[in-house]
Design a protein that fits this description.
- Helix 5 links the parallel strand 5 and strand 6.
- With 400 residues, the protein is α/β, with parallel strands linked by helices.
- The chain contains 14 helices and 19 strands.
- The strands form three sheets. Strands 7, 9, 10, 11, 12, 13, 15, 16, 17, 18 and 19 form an eleven-stranded mixed sheet that branches. Strands 3-2-1-4-5-6 form a six-stranded parallel sheet, with helices on both faces.
- The protein starts with a strand and ends with a strand.
- Helix 2 packs parallel to helix 12, helix 4 packs parallel to helix 5 and helix 5 packs parallel to helix 10.
Length: 400
């Protein structure tokens, strides 16, 4: 028998408990041994819930029990999750987590500590919820040099942009609806300002380029300034605006960012609607591979966590090799990132001024009065800022 302890009985923790109990025979058969949840840690009581029989309030019970083989951390945040997870690993217990903040900040260290003890630190559910992308990047795509990762990594922002596009509604109206449906938190800042996606692309970039990418170093821009007019221009070009997390080699350096992009209609990312996520990985040999599915949700995420539990049990004293060094990778400046831009400036009849600053451009039919909209040629962020000068900029969106 293999014993599992779950730290946290919130949405994901209760989902993990449900999956292991409801699908126990299947989970145990795949793990090669009977799997049992011995403890669930939470500070709260849950009267009438089946979890009562295994509920504990003191983490020491779990950390000091030699019969606990795998610890599942689904508390969120880094305090006290980091301390609990590190101590579990030092005690010789494999750890599986969905905690993106923890993995982005401490993933490389925890991987090293696990390897030193011939156990595992798994975090498939930390990026993309139920979408399997971490393990394929660490195993199936190992022959390739990863040239680029670009992904819709946050279902809340994708839902908002989808509704704005399809129904012509303003941001504030759709955000309120998303909150009412439970797709957005009461304080939606982490989602709509791109912080959630930032931590996820930091994890993917660290795996792809094998050194620690600090999320604090990643240029991050959200969607709160996107208007329905921006989306109309994108639609007129046959594309869609998506909040993307991106990391790629550009001018010899790794550049990472989170920002709204105008995605062309022939990209598979353009058709990803609602709360779904998609991650496009480009290898130098394989080319493009896309991972698509539900990026969040109780049972989708819990399923990915339990898959990690099964893998940790099957490894039984063998550590998966994950190339993620604690050495920090210095990112290239986003100013050097080259792309086209969709630009809107105030005023009309300014072609001569625009072409003098930007060179050859493609003008778009205005969707609002008193403005000029155009597409630039590919240029760096620094060149764009210099070109726009003191023009009255309404908006600018990068083009993928």
């Amino acid at each position: 028998m293999k014993n599992v302890a779950i730290l946290g009985y919130g949405t994901i923790g209760s989902g993990v408990y449900q999956v292991i109990r409801q699908n126990n025979s299947h989970v145990s058969r795949r793990a090669g041994d009977e799997v049992r949840v011995k403890y669930v840690l939470d500070i709260r009581e849950f009267p009438g819930d089946p979890v009562e029989s295994v509920l504990v309030h003191d983490v020491e019970i779990i950390l000091q029990d030699p019969e606990v083989d795998v610890v599942v951390e689904v508390m969120g945040g880094t305090k006290p999750a980091y301390d609990f997870v590190k101590r579990a690993i030092l005690a010789g217990k494999s750890v599986c987590t969905s905690n993106k903040e923890l993995v982005a900040k401490h993933g490389a260290e925890l991987l090293r500590l696990a390897k030193e003890r011939n156990i595992n630190f798994f975090f498939e559910a930390s990026v993309g919820g139920g979408i399997p992308v971490i393990r394929p990047m660490s195993s199936s795509l190992t022959p390739d040099h990863i040239e680029e990762i670009s992904g819709i990594l946050n279902g809340t922002t994708n839902y908002i942009l989808t509704k704005m596009t399809e129904e012509g509604l303003p941001f504030d109206t759709v955000l309120k609806e998303a909150q009412e449906k439970g797709y957005a938190e009461r304080n939606p800042e982490a989602d709509v300002e791109g912080y959630d996606a930032c931590r996820k692309i930091a994890i993917l970039a660290s795996l792809a380029y094998e050194k620690q990418v600090d999320f604090e170093d990643i240029y991050t821009e959200g969607i709160s300034a996107i208007t329905k007019e921006d989306l109309e221009y994108a639609g007129s070009l046959g594309g869609a605006v998506k909040l993307l997390g991106m990391a790629r080699k550009d001018n010899g350096k790794v550049v990472a960012m989170v920002a709204p992009f105008l995605v062309s209609g022939d990209s598979p990312l353009a058709s990803v609607r609602g709360v779904f996520n998609a991650i496009l990985v480009r290898g130098d040999m394989l080319g493009d591979v896309m991972f698509y599915g539900k990026g969040a949700g109780k049972l989708a995420t819990a399923s990915a966590v339990v898959a990690d539990v099964i893998e940790a049990i099957r490894k039984n004293g063998r550590t998966d090799e994950v190339f993620w060094s604690e050495e920090k990778r210095e990112l290239g400046s986003v100013d050097a990132f080259s792309t086209r831009y969709l630009v809107r400036i105030k005023g009309t009849g300014r072609m001569e001024e625009i072409e003098k600053a930007f060179g050859e451009v493609e003008y778009l039919k205005p969707v609002a009065g008193g403005e000029t909209a155009f597409l630039t040629e590919s240029m760096t962020g620094k060149a764009f800022r210099e070109a726009v000068g003191d023009m009255e900029l309404i908006s600018r969106i990068r083009v993928l």
